[in-house]
């Protein structure tokens, strides 16, 4: 993955080694990651989450914070905490009914808007040119923002092409920095691209150790569209956090199942947006950049694929 944003004079290897040493010393547990970097003298508030470049040149963090089910005061607190710890990508959607709470969390964090990468999604009932434009403005107002970094068609249902036309216009007006899709198959993406002037930058789909989607990943890579994993832990279904194979691998690196999962996604070139309501888990999930899974560990994880959704109720 592209590695930009590290301060001059420290290369990626040194950066990771410094992080590893500090983690071993237990410092990481007590500090937010940005503050951690400030503490080791690497300059003002460098962020440890590298950014990849989307096909339109926009930079997107490789790891972000999911907000499904994080509503009201809990949502606000979690978003503010996540930002304070170093998360810069925040993923929400109209259907989560929490854009106001997320916006309040962003505001409370006091972060410079330019540092953040905020994603929302247009829901099925709002599909179509007029409705999608209105839904976008509503999302923006609820989030108290004047632009979005990424806006996605949440599901490939309804008037997808009408929504896309609206999004293309909003993109060209600068109100959205990048547009993309979610839950689209390669065929549906090809169909959309055949009729559009702006190529999707991202496809956000269900991806985790039990549903690895290698065909979709290959298609997306071939077309320079970034794959973003939703439910990177499958919400813990099928015993993800207790899985023995993942635990065996984690033991070698002194990492948890959650960290092994996120690192595996990262090494496959996939952006992840894990969700947690616990500050300790927020820190844990950020701490995946100081180790590297070996080729044989990657292979072991690839064998966990059940090739079936863990969310049949959403099909
Ligand atoms: N586009 C779509 O259709 C779509 C669909 C689903 C989700 N999404 C997006 O993807 C995001 C992530 O997916 P998700 O929320 O479904 O689930 P997820 O991130 O796979 O899993 C969340 C669960 O993992 C637990 N967890 C997190 N970190 C942990 C850790 N280090 N150790 C142990 N448990 C941990 C959380 O519990 P605790 O709170 O106790 O930590 C929570 O129960 C969503 O929040 C949403 O933004 C998009």
Describe it.
The structure is a single chain. The chain starts with 11 loop residues before the first helix and ends in a 13-residue tail after the last helix. It has 2 domains: 1-48, no CATH class; 49-307, TIM Barrel (Alpha-Beta Barrel). It has an 8-stranded parallel beta sheet. Strands 1-2 form a two-stranded antiparallel sheet. Helix 5 crosses helix 6. It is of the alpha/beta class. Helix 8 links the parallel strand 8 and strand 9. The chain has 12 helices and 10 strands. It is 41% helix and 14% strand. The radius of gyration is 19 Å and the shape is globular. It has helices at residues 12-24, 33-39, 72-85, 99-109, 129-143, 160-172, 186-194, 214-222, 244-253, 257-268, 279-286, 295-302; strands spanning 51-53, 59-61, 64-66, 89-91, 117-122, 148-153, 176-182, 202-206, 226-230, 271-272. The protein binds NADP nicotinamide-adenine-dinucleotide phosphate. Residues 66-68, 91, 154, 182-183, 204, 230-236, 241, 258, 273-278, 281, 284-285 line the site of NADP nicotinamide-adenine-dinucleotide phosphate.
Provide keyphrases for this structure.
315 residues, alpha/beta, TIM Barrel, 8-stranded parallel β-sheet, 12 helices, 10 strands, 14% strand, disordered N terminus, binds NADP nicotinamide-adenine-dinucleotide phosphate
Short description:
The chain has helices spanning 12-24, 33-39, 72-85, 99-109, 129-143, 160-172, 186-194, 214-222, 244-253, 257-268, 279-286, 295-302, and strands at residues 51-53, 59-61, 64-66, 89-91, 117-122, 148-153, 176-182, 202-206, 226-230, 271-272.
